[in-house]
Design a protein that fits this description.
Elements (H helix, E strand, L loop, with lengths): L5 E5 L2 H12 L5 E6 L2 E6 L2 E8 L8 E5 L3 H13 L3 E8 L8 E6 L5 E6 L5
Parallel strand pairs: 1-4, 5-8
Antiparallel strand pairs: 2-3, 3-4, 6-7, 7-8
Helix pairs in contact: 1-2
Length: 123
């Protein structure tokens, strides 16, 4: 990642915590810490994605999370839909970006376009 971490304001902390905990689990991204009302998600011991209460949530944002496999992208999409996300693009190749770009998109809490993407060729 070229950015150390990202933080966004959300309108409903509990709803976002449920959504991101379930939707990101297939990507091996988990809640690592809660500090002063903010949740920090990451993998490998480093929280890189943060959210918490703020004056006004940024809307809408595009949040793309890396996946280690195409199976993980599919699992993310299914998990996100199961927790109430709206489909914004089913798992599949997006050749417009590059021949191996395999992504899935959902609209999550606060209207954010949340994506999981794998850049690896099919195994």
């Amino acid at each position: 990642m070229i950015i150390d971490h990202v933080g966004i304001s959300v309108s409903d902390y509990a709803q976002c915590k449920t959504f991101f905990s379930q939707a990101l689990a297939p990507l091996d991204i988990a809640l690592m810490v809660e500090v002063a009302g903010w949740a920090g998600y990451g993998r490998g011991g480093k929280p890189e994605f943060w959210f918490g209460p703020g004056e006004a949530p940024q809307r809408p944002m595009h949040l793309a999370f890396t996946a280690d496999s195409r199976d993980a992208v599919r699992a993310f999409h299914a998990a996100a839909l199961a927790v109430g996300a709206i489909d914004n693009g089913p798992p599949g190749i997006r050749e417009i970006y590059h021949p191996h770009y395999y992504g899935a998109f959902v609209i999550g809490p606060d209207g954010h376009n949340v994506e999981a993407v794998c850049h690896k060729p099919e195994a």
